[in-house]
Design brief:
about 170 residues; 6 helices; about 0% strand; flat
Length: about 170
């Protein structure tokens, strides 16, 4: 909760602060990956994945017109997906989604999708983040589902690598 406003501040404020912030995050993440997976066969693959992930964030923010708006939208969709997945999974429980991450449930996955759509519609149409409200069209709906899906898959993939490295939290 502390990092969310800080991250949004760096995204909005611009190039130097954002680049510095994303570089620090990249180094911290790479260090954690190194500690978690050194001497494993997937070590280099993970470093390449991290590099391209952070490079994509850099490209979206720096080289797109209104890049900070897109970046914030993607960030908020991912956050609302996580929150929705956590609360819907805790409240409704139900069948497990995968053996890789045993606490993930189908109700949590559906809740992640639902909250990301609701959050997008309520918050991003309020003129608080964007110059103009965005109405949910079919293309926007698919975009939200795509980002939410990638967010959930990324969470499951990280859980898989943590499990391979025998790390629980």
């Amino acid at each position: 909760l502390i990092l969310i406003p800080l991250a949004i501040f760096f995204v909005i404020k611009g190039n130097f602060l954002f680049n510095f912030f994303i570089l620090i995050c990249f180094f911290i993440t790479s260090y954690e990956w190194h500690k978690m997976s050194r001497r494993k066969s997937y070590y280099l693959l993970g470093l390449i994945f991290l590099f391209f992930s952070f490079y994509s964030a850099y490209e979206i923010r720096t080289h797109m017109s209104d890049g900070y708006e897109y970046f914030i939208i993607i960030l908020l969709i991912c956050i609302s997906t996580d929150i929705g997945g956590y609360f819907f999974g805790k409240i409704f429980k139900g069948p497990k989604l995968t053996k890789i991450s045993p606490k993930k449930t189908f109700s949590g996955a559906i809740g992640g999708y639902l909250l990301s759509i609701i959050f997008f519609n309520l918050v991003l149409n309020s003129n608080y983040f964007l110059n103009e409200p965005i109405k949910i069209t079919f293309d926007i709906f698919l975009f939200i589902l795509l980002i939410s899906t990638v967010s959930q898959l990324g969470d499951i993939i990280i859980s898989y690598f943590k499990r391979l490295s025998k790390i629980k939290d």
